[in-house]
Task: structure prediction
Amino acid sequence: MSTMRKTLSMLSGAAGSALVLSGFIALWWAASQGGWVNRAFLPSPQATLASLVQGMAGGDLAAYTWATLSRMVSGWVLASALGIALGALIGSSARAREWIAPTLEFIRPLPASAVMPLAIALFGLSGNMVLAVVAFGAMWPVLLATLHGLANVHPQLREVSRSLELGHLAFVLKVGLPNAMPDILAGMRLSLTVSLIVSVVGEMIASQPGLGQAILLAARSFQASDLFAGIVLLGALGFASNVLLALAERRLLRWQHP
Result:
């Protein structure tokens, strides 16, 4: 009975989401067809779809999408590895948290775009520059989530680990990180979104191949349908990556909901 209720709830949610999306597309069509906004700036959904199909089939849009996806995933993997390692290192020690937390709070609010001039000075206008900025911007959600998860290990678990005479590294690997896994996965989902955003901004600034560059070039040449096709692709990338990571998170955390 509970399974059927859960299935019905999921179907109801999917139907509601489809209805909202359909309403948004209908409003977009009406605004374009009714002349509410000049078509030079707001193409119709049909024109956008035609540009999307043409770009993916015979144009450079597929290559641009792959470049952005590769950059996003590479930066996210690097950011996740750095965030988990640093978060575990700092979060497993109360003294380290006390000493380093103020510095983290000073650096954390810096937007990734603010460090781009420094990254350009170090790496030049290159793909490595964009990757470094993506990793920097996407690292913080994972690092802070890992730190929070390690810092909030239940005192009884710490007592058990001391009774078993677990060393510091063994405690982190066998107790701390598994306990922090829900926080870490939530941070990684947020980090993936940040990776996509910073990848696009970096492509625009550094003139690197990708959807960011494609959107910028379309805007400069007043090709509204191509611009919107790029935006639709970015939305699809973000949606698909979030869904995949949510499914992976649900699978990895099955032990929480037996």
